[in-house]
Amino acid sequence: MNFFLRSCFSAILLFFFVGTANASTATVPTPVGSWQTIDDVTNTARSIIKISLNDDQELIGNIVKINYRPNEGPNDVCNKCSGNLHNQKILGLTILSDMKQNKDNPLQWNDGHIVDPENGNQYRCLINISADGKTLKVRGYIGFSWIGRTQTWYRLS
Questions:
Q1: Rounded Cα distance, 137 and 27, in Å
Q2: Which domains does the chain have, with CATH numbers?
Q3: DSSP states of 81-110 as a string?
Q4: What is the pTM of this model?
Q5: For 124, phi and psi rounded to 5 degrees?
Q6: Of 23, 78, 80, 127, which has the highest C-beta tally within 10 A?
Q7: Using one digit for the tens of pLDDT, what is the confidence trace for 49-77?
């Protein structure tokens, strides 16, 4: 009987530790992949952004597809952008850069920048990925993060 109780107790402890270990090793979703953006005005699909990691483990994002509006096309350039983005083709443009993963919250990336190719403005950026990895909340802001605008991007791959 004593052996039976010890065996049951050992099995319960083993189950507890295995279950706890699996919970603590759950993978954190990554923003790396392709994301569908939504047009703020028409509420329709606007572009696809491909996010990847650079050699410094920072996120960068490039426009890989655009659903063009009338009078837009694949040869359009960012004539309102400044610096090295000025007059670069919008298709292929790096609009997201320098994003670092928050050490205290692995679902958040910050300290980077995002460019709006429609007006050429560059903003500080904060990204939160959902726990299921299916959506990104991308916030561009000036100065303080509460002064800005947030878009939801949807994972394609």
A1: 19
A2: 33-155 (2.40.128.520)
A3: --GGGTT-BSTT-EEEEEEEE-SS-TTEEE
A4: 0.82
A5: -70, 160
A6: 127
A7: 999 999 999 999 999 999 999 999 999 99
